[in-house]
Design brief:
alpha/beta, binds S-adenosylmethionine, 7-stranded mixed β-sheet, Rossmann fold
Amino acid sequence: MAGWLDRIRMLNSPLHMLALAAAVKWFGGARARERFGLLTVRPMYAYGLFRAADLARWCGLRRVTAVEFGVATGAGLLAMVEAAGHVRRDTGVEVRVVGFDTAAGLPPPTDHRDHPELWSEGDFAMVHHDELRARLAGRAELVIGDIADTVGPFRESLAPEAPLGFVSMDVDLYSSTVAALRVFEAADPSIYLPAVSVYLDDVAMFTANRWCGELAAIEEFNTAHELRKFDVDRTLPGRRPWPHLNWYARMRVLHVLDHPRRRRPEARRGLALDEDQRRLREYGLM
Ligand SMILES: C[S@@+](CC[C@H](N)C(=O)[O-])C[C@H]1O[C@@H](n2cnc3c(N)ncnc32)[C@H](O)[C@@H]1O
């Protein structure tokens, strides 16, 4: 989790930036607080949800779905519902939030790809999932069980009216990540946004590499799917106020290249350059 480390890093910034951050904290709107990392304890969730809501508006939609794979005690899922509330008030887009966990902690690591040097069976057990459900107060669905069993029925529940737009992948193991990535294998591309923001939690440890864990799982996904591809998020850090936060390098975009929105140009009159810039900014496409 990048949160508190990034906050310490922010303190290393010039005084005028700290003063600006303080002003944004007290007087800024949700978008400004998101850019300054001040909206929730999981800034990457606020970022991903704003991306999803903006792309949903671009597609003429008012609802979108966001998922956390790996919930543990629920700190991340609670941050996601909090961020979803801010996003709804700012954009008018409703976010369906869904969390997945065994409740019993990690399944057993199978081989070196599951990073057995770091994790063991039963790590991060949820313990009180009824208590978490009570705290979520209906603002998120909690799907208990092995993702290998639960991801299929969930994928079936997705619909073009509320497509999948943001995913946090935090199941630690390669084998669990492979199972979770099946969420992106639906035949109908319109149950996704044309580009889905994806946060990968476990790609920045010293033992992380492209042959193990989440990185191996997304490389294999890319090889296996001609028209669904993970790439880095090329808009980060862009012009964001803090250029060096840890979570930027953990963001990916799942490009749904078979999405109808990416298969043919819109029928409309020619765009002027300034209109194009305004549109790209309005829908967060740059
Ligand atoms: C590091 S914790 C998640 C932390 C949480 N995202 C947060 O930010 O507070 C990893 C979780 O993934 C869950 N998990 C791993 N593999 C799973 C699987 N195959 N099915 C369901 N849950 C799984 C574990 O139970 C564990 O609670």
